[in-house]
Amino acid sequence: MPCSALVADYAYLVDHRQFARAVELFTPDGRIERPDLISNGPSEILTHWTSRPATVVTCHVCSPPSFRELSQDRAMAVTYFTLYHLTYDGEGTPPMNDPVALGEFHDCFALTALGWRFKTRVVRAVLKRA
To answer: Which regions of the chain are under pLDDT 50?
Structure first.
Protein backbone atom coordinates (compact mmCIF):
# COMPACT_ATOMS: atom_id res chain seq x y z
CA MET A 1 0.00 0.00 0.00
CA PRO A 2 1.35 3.47 -0.85
CA CYS A 3 0.65 4.68 2.69
CA SER A 4 3.23 2.21 4.04
CA ALA A 5 5.83 3.90 1.84
CA LEU A 6 4.85 7.29 3.31
CA VAL A 7 5.60 5.99 6.81
CA ALA A 8 9.05 4.78 5.75
CA ASP A 9 9.77 7.91 3.69
CA TYR A 10 8.83 10.18 6.60
CA ALA A 11 11.33 8.46 8.92
CA TYR A 12 14.09 8.50 6.33
CA LEU A 13 13.60 12.12 5.27
CA VAL A 14 13.30 13.50 8.81
CA ASP A 15 16.27 11.48 10.06
CA HIS A 16 18.36 12.67 7.09
CA ARG A 17 17.26 16.29 7.60
CA GLN A 18 15.58 16.45 4.20
CA PHE A 19 12.80 18.53 5.69
CA ALA A 20 11.61 20.25 2.50
CA ARG A 21 10.97 16.84 0.96
CA ALA A 22 9.37 15.52 4.15
CA VAL A 23 6.71 18.26 4.22
CA GLU A 24 5.69 17.25 0.69
CA LEU A 25 4.30 14.06 2.27
CA PHE A 26 1.51 16.14 3.89
CA THR A 27 -1.71 17.57 2.52
CA PRO A 28 -1.87 21.40 2.39
CA ASP A 29 -3.83 21.31 5.66
CA GLY A 30 -1.68 18.54 7.15
CA ARG A 31 -1.03 18.49 10.87
CA ILE A 32 1.42 16.93 13.32
CA GLU A 33 0.43 16.65 16.97
CA ARG A 34 3.03 15.74 19.55
CA PRO A 35 2.61 15.93 23.33
CA ASP A 36 4.81 19.06 23.35
CA LEU A 37 3.94 20.68 20.01
CA ILE A 38 1.25 21.03 17.35
CA SER A 39 2.20 22.09 13.82
CA ASN A 40 -0.51 23.02 11.31
CA GLY A 41 0.28 22.96 7.60
CA PRO A 42 3.52 22.22 5.77
CA SER A 43 4.94 25.70 6.39
CA GLU A 44 4.60 25.42 10.17
CA ILE A 45 5.88 21.83 10.13
CA LEU A 46 8.91 22.92 8.09
CA THR A 47 9.59 25.84 10.44
CA HIS A 48 9.62 23.47 13.40
CA TRP A 49 11.97 20.99 11.75
CA THR A 50 14.39 23.58 10.40
CA SER A 51 14.66 25.18 13.85
CA ARG A 52 16.42 22.05 15.12
CA PRO A 53 20.14 22.56 15.68
CA ALA A 54 22.29 20.78 13.10
CA THR A 55 23.79 18.77 15.96
CA VAL A 56 20.50 16.95 16.67
CA VAL A 57 20.59 13.40 15.35
CA THR A 58 17.47 11.23 15.21
CA CYS A 59 16.71 7.72 14.05
CA HIS A 60 13.13 6.45 13.87
CA VAL A 61 12.86 2.66 13.66
CA CYS A 62 9.30 1.88 12.56
CA SER A 63 7.17 -1.23 12.48
CA PRO A 64 4.93 -1.89 9.50
CA PRO A 65 1.73 0.16 9.79
CA SER A 66 -1.37 -1.56 11.14
CA PHE A 67 -4.29 -0.28 9.08
CA ARG A 68 -7.37 0.32 11.20
CA GLU A 69 -9.60 1.84 8.50
CA LEU A 70 -9.37 1.86 4.74
CA SER A 71 -11.55 3.38 2.03
CA GLN A 72 -10.99 4.58 -1.52
CA ASP A 73 -9.73 8.01 -0.46
CA ARG A 74 -8.94 7.73 3.25
CA ALA A 75 -6.94 5.40 5.48
CA MET A 76 -6.01 5.27 9.13
CA ALA A 77 -3.08 3.35 10.58
CA VAL A 78 -1.05 2.96 13.75
CA THR A 79 2.72 2.44 13.51
CA TYR A 80 4.98 1.64 16.43
CA PHE A 81 8.32 3.43 16.47
CA THR A 82 11.48 3.43 18.52
CA LEU A 83 13.20 6.80 18.69
CA TYR A 84 16.90 7.36 19.08
CA HIS A 85 17.75 11.03 19.71
CA LEU A 86 21.07 12.63 20.59
CA THR A 87 23.23 15.68 20.12
CA TYR A 88 26.47 15.09 18.22
CA ASP A 89 28.88 17.56 16.67
CA GLY A 90 31.82 15.25 16.00
CA GLU A 91 33.09 13.58 12.86
CA GLY A 92 32.01 10.18 11.60
CA THR A 93 29.22 7.98 12.89
CA PRO A 94 27.56 9.23 16.10
CA PRO A 95 27.74 6.94 19.14
CA MET A 96 24.61 4.90 19.74
CA ASN A 97 22.67 5.60 22.91
CA ASP A 98 19.66 3.80 24.27
CA PRO A 99 16.36 4.75 22.67
CA VAL A 100 14.61 7.72 24.24
CA ALA A 101 11.08 6.52 23.52
CA LEU A 102 8.80 3.83 22.19
CA GLY A 103 5.73 5.37 20.66
CA GLU A 104 2.89 5.17 18.20
CA PHE A 105 2.16 7.22 15.12
CA HIS A 106 -1.60 7.52 14.65
CA ASP A 107 -1.90 8.51 11.00
CA CYS A 108 -4.78 9.62 8.87
CA PHE A 109 -3.98 9.49 5.15
CA ALA A 110 -5.90 11.20 2.34
CA LEU A 111 -5.80 10.45 -1.37
CA THR A 112 -5.01 13.68 -3.24
CA ALA A 113 -4.36 14.58 -6.87
CA LEU A 114 -0.68 13.96 -6.07
CA GLY A 115 -1.34 10.56 -4.49
CA TRP A 116 -1.62 9.53 -0.85
CA ARG A 117 -0.49 12.07 1.75
CA PHE A 118 -0.55 12.45 5.53
CA LYS A 119 -3.54 14.47 6.67
CA THR A 120 -2.71 14.09 10.36
CA ARG A 121 0.04 12.44 12.31
CA VAL A 122 -0.54 12.17 16.06
CA VAL A 123 2.51 11.07 18.07
CA ARG A 124 1.81 9.20 21.28
CA ALA A 125 4.44 8.02 23.73
CA VAL A 126 3.98 4.47 24.98
CA LEU A 127 7.21 4.28 27.00
CA LYS A 128 9.90 6.88 27.49
CA ARG A 129 13.14 7.15 29.34
CA ALA A 130 12.74 8.64 32.80
So the answer is: none
